[in-house]
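Ops channel
N.P.: pipeline sanity check, posting one input/output pair.
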């Protein structure tokens, strides 16, 4: 089984502060740890969510996406990767687009 750990682009460009630097540093540390653990049982790669992610996942023949994306732009940013993966028929970890949308709207949740 091939697993892709997918994260957002670095946030420092959008958040050029110590917070952005620390977020990106923590993300790299998390990816490294996850990859170390998952690689014991699975073929594991890491990718960044961009406009070309779905074709790359297909080219790499990924069986499952481990979603670490928070999104970068828009009110529905948490739903963007799950929605793209559902559309493409690629299994993933995390809530569904609807689940993210409901959780993000505190009035409904």
């Amino acid at each position: 089984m091939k697993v892709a750990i997918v994260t957002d682009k670095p946030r420092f460009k959008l958040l050029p502060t110590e917070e952005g630097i620390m977020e990106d540093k923590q993300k790299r540390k998390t990816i490294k740890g996850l990859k170390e653990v998952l690689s014991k049982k699975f073929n594991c790669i890491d990718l960044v969510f961009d406009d070309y992610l779905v074709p790359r996942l297909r080219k790499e023949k990924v069986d499952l996406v481990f979603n670490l994306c928070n999104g970068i732009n828009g009110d529905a940013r948490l739903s963007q990767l799950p929605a793209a993966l559902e559309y493409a028929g690629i299994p993933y970890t995390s809530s569904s687009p609807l689940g993210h949308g409901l959780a993000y709207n505190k009035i409904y949740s």
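N.P.: looks fine end to end. The mean pLDDT is 86.
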